[in-house]
Write a structure and sequence with these properties.
heterodimer, A: about 210 residues, alpha+beta, Alpha-Beta Plaits, 2 domains, six-stranded antiparallel β-sheet, three-stranded antiparallel β-sheet, 9 strands, about 25% helix, disordered N terminus, B: about 290 residues, mainly beta, Neuraminidase, four-stranded antiparallel β-sheet, 1 helix, 26 strands, about 50% strand, globular, NHL_repeat (chain B), ubiquitin protein ligase activity (chain B), 6-blade_b-propeller_TolB-like (chain B)
């Protein structure tokens, strides 16, 4: 099934071709960030707008459906992971996984270390309230981050999270707490008002009283 | 006696006409117009000509009823909700400033924080007293202008003499949370209050009058259009257009073939809806409701 995606791409022309700009991509670092909160073109264009503050940025691509955001930047300017993540936050969005492939071939990520192998796997179905694809990304990211969880897949229509985990390491309660921790109510655990309020406006589902 | 007959005939005619006018109507799906390579954000019409802002491709295009591109204007930075208008607005070509004295297409450039003014393939920029941060829409009504200023959570309104700022960030009546579209009418200013998931109505002094659609579970109200009889609002994430009467009561919800809608235009009983993601125009027609 072909996934419907819209790729926004722009080529930013600079005032003149400097030696750095005239060089090929081997002299540019490649940045890839998975951004939470891009729901519509207004959001995507807004993220792009904020990143244009980095003079020399090129090859910007944003996939609204997945939140995948990428661009290249002159290697000589040594743009850091911290600066990129901070700029996403400044634009009003939440950065998830981020990766920099330096022109030298070095790869940097902000991803946590791979979790240990899960031994005794149990599968549970948990109701988690949410609205959209962005909620899905957030819920799955939060719950798979729980030690002992192997996989977590949330269905946007049924709002059921199917989660496989090691009973020796975690529990349904812990997994519900993880979802609630990022603003999503479950049958057993209610998110704090503060975490609910922090959700992107697109994601503000109707809460049970 | 003859006079009496005339009166009866006239009365019958009037009753007949009244009955005809009273036939209830609603919007009914007509057709999908495929737009090859266009992701439309905004729509405006000049007569029967359809103009679309293609945000992803930084251009404005004129298309025909089949969706074929008749011509395109390039070089914009994320053009958004566009509008036609005519008045003595101050414009500049960056070198000289003059008054616009003819009908023009106004194009808010979200990525450039400016309002481009196009006429006869000549481009100028609207002279503003305030700076913008991601203008998402413009409405021109006689000598009035309203601009939805996305990031500052406000609408800038020019009443022909001076500018005022409408709205502050928030969720209460009179507050906005990322306005994406605006329309001026004879007496009011209607705003698509996108991430408050509703529309709002202000008078021309900037006083909030009403909230529309707050109970309809809208998810991102991205576009608004107001006719003499209806307020139409796009529900982006839910793929719907909600139609309210002038007392702000819901009249109809249309969904057929609507997917990620961003804007609406209504003219002479025809409605065009922009499907951003799929690159389509959806056409509806106002028809008598038939009971089969």
């Amino acid at each position: 099934m072909k996934q419907i995606t819209i790729i926004l791409s722009i080529m930013i022309s600079l005032l003149a071709l400097t030696p750095v700009d005239a060089q090929s991509n081997k002299d540019r670092d490649q940045f890839e960030v998975q951004v939470d909160g891009l729901g519509c073109p207004f959001c995507a264009y807004g993220l792009e707008k904020k990143f244009k503050e980095f003079k020399g940025i090129k090859d910007i691509a944003i996939d609204i459906e997945t939140g995948d955001f990428s661009f290249t930047y002159p290697a000589a300017k040594e743009l850091t992971m911290e600066a990129v993540v901070a700029q996403v936050v400044k634009a009003g969005y939440t950065p998830n996984d981020a990766k920099i492939t330096r022109a030298s071939g070095t790869v940097e990520t902000n991803k946590e270390a791979e979790k240990e192998t899960v031994n005794e796997v149990t599968t549970s179905k948990i109701y988690v309230n949410g609205m959209c694809g962005m909620c899905k990304a957030r819920i799955e990211k939060a719950t798979t981050a729980v030690d002992g969880v192997a996989t977590a897949i949330w269905n946007v229509d049924t709002k059921i999270l199917t989660v496989s985990y090691d009973q020796n390491q975690t529990s349904e309660k812990n997994i519900e707490s993880a979802a609630a921790g990022v603003g999503h109510d479950t049958n057993g655990t209610r998110a704090t008002d503060a975490s609910y309020d922090n959700l992107h406006p697109c994601c503000k589902y109707e809460r049970a009283n | 006696m003859r006079t009496l007959i005339y009166i009866i005939v006239a009365a019958t005619t009037i009753i007949s006409c009244t009955d005809k006018a009273a036939v209830p109507q609603d919007w009914q799906f007509e057709k999908v117009i495929e737009l090859d390579g266009i992701n439309p954000i905004g729509i405006a019409m000049d007569g029967n000509d359809i103009f679309l802002s293609d945000g992803d491709h930084n251009r404005v295009v004129k298309v025909d009823e089949d969706g074929s591109v008749l011509f395109e204007m390039e070089g914009f930075e994320r053009p958004m909700h566009i509008d036609f208008g005519e008045s003595d607005f101050e414009i500049t070509d960056k070198v000289t400033t003059s008054l616009l004295k003819e009908r023009a297409l106004f194009i808010p450039e979200y990525g450039r924080d400016s309002i481009a003014v196009m006429r006869d393939n000549k481009m100028d920029y609207l002279v503003l007293q305030d700076s913008l941060d991601a203008p998402a829409a413009i409405s021109v009504f006689e000598d009035e202008i309203a601009i939805a200023d996305f990031y500052p959570n406000r609408v800038l309104y020019y009443d022909g003499k001076e500018w005022i700022s409408i709205g502050t960030e928030g969720k209460e009546l009179g507050q906005l949370y990322y306005p994406t579209d605006v329309q001026i009418t004879e007496n009011y200013i209607y705003i698509a209050d996108a991430y408050n998931h509703r529309a709002q109505v202000f008078d021309k002094t900037g006083k909030a009058i009403a909230i529309i659609g707050a109970d309809q579970k809208i998810n991102a109200a991205t576009g608004i259009y107001v006719t003499d009889n209806e307020v139409l609002l796009t529900d982006f994430e839910n793929g719907r257009v909600l139609i309210f009467d002038m007392k702000h009561q819901l009249k109809q919800i249309i969904e057929t073939n609507i997917d990620k809608p961003t804007d609406i235009f209504v003219q002479d009983g025809l409605m065009y809806i922009t499907n951003y993601r799929k690159g389509q125009l959806i056409k509806y027609i106002l028809k008598d409701i038939t009971h089969e």
